[in-house]
Specification:
The structure is a homodimer of 302-residue chains.
Chain A lengths: L3 E5 L8 H12 L4 E5 L2 H10 L6 E3 L5 E3 L3 H25 L4 E6 L5 E5 L3 E5 L2 E5 L5 E6 L1 H9 L3 E10 L4 E3 L2 H11 L4 E6 L17 E2 L4 H4 L7 H13 L4 E6 L5 H6 L4 E4 L4 E3 L2 E3 L6 E3 L2 E3 L1 H5 L1
Parallel strand pairs in A: 1-2, 1-12, 2-10, 5-10, 6-10, 12-14, 13-15
Antiparallel strand pairs in A: 3-4, 6-9, 7-8, 10-11, 14-15, 16-17, 18-19
Helix pairs in contact in A: 2-3, 5-7
């Protein structure tokens, strides 16, 4: 059975516990899951507490990212691989799921190239930033994840990568999840955040776009605001790596992973998911929630 | 070949880079190594920066430990599993060693029982502390470490454990290393810190006790000051778990791991280490340093 990769956003307002409960249910039902998480709110909070508040970089194309100077990097590593990662792992363990936390530096899980010079737009003017420690992922150690999954562990991955010179780098969590999904031949990538998906008329949540044909992804890019731009880029990267379905969905609802796998959110790629012959199929929905637990197709059709 | 478990202290004054260089050399020469690390200075520093400075608990028997209230726990987790762990992993990766960082909550690596009520001595009076999040390790997932070692990874372990109720717990790094050494059938446990070993006349470093017969361990306990008490307790726990040799040694010298394996420090248990028939033997020293690199017995005798 191929894994499902789930990205849990790190922004304020993202609902964590219901996502973890769904993951524990899926793992209990036998589905291999890889969880990648963000860290933005926790990194911001730690940075503010030590008096080194975060700054953002806006690229000329409008993508927003964390300005990771050396001091911010130290705090980011602590928040991402320490605080957020181990909180999630302990919470999953409490639910009976044998989670195992890693960051991209561990076992060369995520290898990235540092962007030595980053163009930033500030007040309408461009400038070059040279001490940013952000990376672009170039390789994923899929074998490590496959080995852990085969041994019954649920990998939980913090958004750090190992640079080509052995340095620790901040990487975008959505794009990391996309690269991971490609490396483990995931059947689906589910990106959960604090919005329902891609909105045609941001921030009107009733304007949710329910399906995007991969061939038309470029056409909807102009609708994306802020962080949603990176999520569409991540979706594109996952599709390019043969992940058939990406779902951008809301963490703030009941049973958010189950809902996303039902196609509730913005589905990019094949339209509806199901499980058949022990494999997540791209045909018809068979996942159901019964008695508060996620049921597999076998259990439902019985 | 059975692993060597190395504990790298987390106190101020511990020399990190030479220890990691030795580890990378040993791994390159084919020796399986598990590295457990401390975190005290980094946790103290973070706690001070956010304005929640650390406090110590002194037990009636004189053991000193960190008072880990819920707020301290959050900071401790970030410093241990985030900052210190990933710094070490990245440094080893830079040296070509495929390090993989874990904490005890990951994959149920270290399961511990929380001490619900801790007796503390303050100003000559005893009091009971009930919100301390410190644990006593009860089980180690040796299979996880064995699997990682067999796949060429060098596990690097932060001193956190998973409590019986899924909570994260602070555990003593020396005693964690001892439990790990027992679980992986280690040939030796090397505990490196910022002192030469057990001193007969603390702090006179020329009073180093070079060898302690395990049967006489209780007799030397009275000589130990401060943190050294826990190291002797850890040594005893390792010996009880059939680890034949424990070396308490100094991180602050050149090639500290090689020196410790030559028996320089306080050797508790079998007296001298060597490598023979691809196994660390307890007979005669064969590890040598040549051209700045640790050589194996085979390379030396050639």
């Amino acid at each position: 059975m191929n894994p499902i990769v789930i990205k849990l956003g790190g922004a304020a307002g993202v609902s964590v516990a219901p996502v973890l409960a769904d993951i524990a249910n899926l793992v209990r039902a036998g589905y291999p899951i890889v969880l990648a998480h963000g860290t933005s709110a926790a990194a911001d909070e730690l940075a503010a507490r030590v008096g080194h508040p975060c700054r953002q970089i806006t690229s000329p194309s409008g993508h927003v990212s964390r300005y990771t100077d050396p001091e911010t990097l130290e705090l980011y590593v602590m928040a991402a691989a320490g605080g957020v990662n181990k909180n999630i792992v302990a919470a999953l363990q409490q639910m009976g799921c044998n989670a195992l936390g890693l960051s991209g530096v561990d076992g060369r899980l995520l290898l990235a190239r540092r962007k030595a010079a980053v163009r930033a737009v500030e007040g309408g003017r461009q400038r070059i930033i040279r001490d940013d420690h952000t990376g672009q992922i170039e390789a994923v150690n899929g074998d490590l994840l496959t080995m852990l999954l085969a041994s019954g562990y649920t990998p939980v991955i913090a958004p750090l990568a190992l640079g080509l010179e052995g340095e620790r780098l901040n990487v975008d969590g959505d794009r990391a999840a996309a690269m991971i999904a490609g490396a483990v031949n995931a059947d689906a990538l589910v990106i959960l955040s604090n919005v329902p998906g891609l909105l045609a008329d941001y921030p009107d949540e009733s304007s949710l776009i329910r399906h995007v044909d991969p061939a038309r992804l470029a056409a909807v890019e102009g609708l994306a605001q802020g962080r949603m731009k990176k999520k569409l880029l991540a979706a594109q990267e996952a599709l390019e790596r043969n992940v058939p379905t990406v779902v951008l969905a809301d963490s703030r609802r009941a049973m958010p992973v189950a809902a996303a796998l039902r196609g509730e959110g913005t589905v990019i790629g094949e339209r509806v998911l199901s499980i058949e012959n022990d494999r997540l199929q791209i045909k018809d929905l068979r996942l159901r929630i019964e008695d508060g637990a996620l049921q597999t197709a076998e259990q439902v059709t019985r």
